[in-house]
């Protein structure tokens, strides 16, 4: 299979990981204010919620979020194809299948990381989704689970999903241990193996492979790209330090565009916040994702404190964001970072 020469493959050079309860539409809108090119992912949405539950509101997003991929959870090819069709019709640029999430809830539904044990089912899901929609179908997976030997199972897994029509893959470069570790521990304790992901790139030179796991700076993302990988997906660091990861990404990773800044992002969020409040939304639903914007900068603590203490109060509005911003801008540039 050849890497399709779409812009989306290029956008996938840097992406923000799907994260439940974190990468909701407000978070994605914020991240988009920091980078025009980075590929954004939704939280995982189960195919059953869309198809059987009719929860189509889970697909709501803003036009400004593009390019944006919908991540689906499930293991029933027919249901996933229906969900993929709904996602594509809602305007998503890519549909991604979750084969990496180890949570109990997800294991009981036979999807997520447990699917690493069943490449035939994953291939059937990919093929069915591929046949249903025109936008790319991609997979996010682990290097293996439990006692699997990744050197053995990962090439087999990848060749089957590629044969089924998977156009890109993101590999979280650590195993998931399905028994005994919480989902949170499963993001830290199993060791990272970037070398293995590199070897997969050598084995599958025409497959667009993104690596995920433990990337904490744009420098590190650049090094991984320089080492021959096609993309880097950043999760927690992009959420906690969005400015560090995203504000220089357009220039440094995509070679076009100017650097953003936390201040510019705040200014750009104001009309969005106003519109959300006018529609009956609450301030904290948006500002909870903005707490890390000034991470490491003087006044960051004041920014976080004002927003976390005030944004849940009835009637909280944009003036609270201005008050929080004053903590950052009032401080001299050489003031001690807090
Ligand atoms: C709060 C949270 C929620 C997550 N939810 C999902 C999810 O819905 N789907 C998924 O594939 N991975 C999910 N993940 C895993 C991330 O996508 C990513 O693989 C993981 O955090 C490792 O990347 P990082 O070290 O850059 O954070 C989640 C991670 C976090 C921290």
UniProtKB/TrEMBL annotation:
<comment type="similarity">
    <text>Belongs to the Dus family. DusA subfamily.</text>
</comment>
<keyword id="KW-0521">NADP</keyword>
<feature type="binding site">
    <location>
        <position position="140"/>
    </location>
    <ligand>
        <name>FMN</name>
    </ligand>
</feature>
<keyword id="KW-0819">tRNA processing</keyword>
<dbReference type="GO" id="GO:0102266">
    <property type="term" value="F:tRNA-dihydrouridine20a synthase activity"/>
</dbReference>
<keyword id="KW-0288">FMN</keyword>
<dbReference type="GO" id="GO:0102264">
    <property type="term" value="F:tRNA-dihydrouridine20 synthase activity"/>
</dbReference>
<dbReference type="GO" id="GO:0050660">
    <property type="term" value="F:flavin adenine dinucleotide binding"/>
</dbReference>
<feature type="active site" description="Proton donor">
    <location>
        <position position="101"/>
    </location>
</feature>
<keyword id="KW-0694">RNA-binding</keyword>
<feature type="site" description="Interacts with tRNA; defines subfamily-specific binding signature">
    <location>
        <position position="301"/>
    </location>
</feature>
<feature type="binding site">
    <location>
        <begin position="235"/>
        <end position="236"/>
    </location>
    <ligand>
        <name>FMN</name>
    </ligand>
</feature>
<feature type="domain" description="DUS-like FMN-binding">
    <location>
        <begin position="16"/>
        <end position="324"/>
    </location>
</feature>
<feature type="site" description="Interacts with tRNA; defines subfamily-specific binding signature">
    <location>
        <position position="184"/>
    </location>
</feature>
<keyword id="KW-0560">Oxidoreductase</keyword>
<dbReference type="InterPro" id="IPR035587">
    <property type="entry name" value="DUS-like_FMN-bd"/>
</dbReference>
<feature type="site" description="Interacts with tRNA">
    <location>
        <position position="98"/>
    </location>
</feature>
<feature type="binding site">
    <location>
        <position position="71"/>
    </location>
    <ligand>
        <name>FMN</name>
    </ligand>
</feature>
<feature type="site" description="Interacts with tRNA; defines subfamily-specific binding signature">
    <location>
        <position position="304"/>
    </location>
</feature>
<dbReference type="InterPro" id="IPR004653">
    <property type="entry name" value="DusA"/>
</dbReference>
<dbReference type="GO" id="GO:0000049">
    <property type="term" value="F:tRNA binding"/>
</dbReference>
<feature type="binding site">
    <location>
        <begin position="18"/>
        <end position="20"/>
    </location>
    <ligand>
        <name>FMN</name>
    </ligand>
</feature>
<feature type="binding site">
    <location>
        <position position="172"/>
    </location>
    <ligand>
        <name>FMN</name>
    </ligand>
</feature>
<protein>
    <recommendedName>
        <fullName>tRNA-dihydrouridine(20/20a) synthase</fullName>
        <ecNumber>1.3.1.91</ecNumber>
    </recommendedName>
</protein>
<keyword id="KW-0820">tRNA-binding</keyword>
<dbReference type="InterPro" id="IPR018517">
    <property type="entry name" value="tRNA_hU_synthase_CS"/>
</dbReference>
<dbReference type="GO" id="GO:0010181">
    <property type="term" value="F:FMN binding"/>
</dbReference>
<feature type="site" description="Interacts with tRNA">
    <location>
        <position position="187"/>
    </location>
</feature>
<dbReference type="Pfam" id="PF01207">
    <property type="entry name" value="Dus"/>
</dbReference>
<dbReference type="InterPro" id="IPR013785">
    <property type="entry name" value="Aldolase_TIM"/>
</dbReference>
<comment type="function">
    <text>Catalyzes the synthesis of 5,6-dihydrouridine (D), a modified base found in the D-loop of most tRNAs, via the reduction of the C5-C6 double bond in target uridines. Specifically modifies U20 and U20a in tRNAs.</text>
</comment>
<feature type="binding site">
    <location>
        <begin position="212"/>
        <end position="214"/>
    </location>
    <ligand>
        <name>FMN</name>
    </ligand>
</feature>
<keyword id="KW-0285">Flavoprotein</keyword>
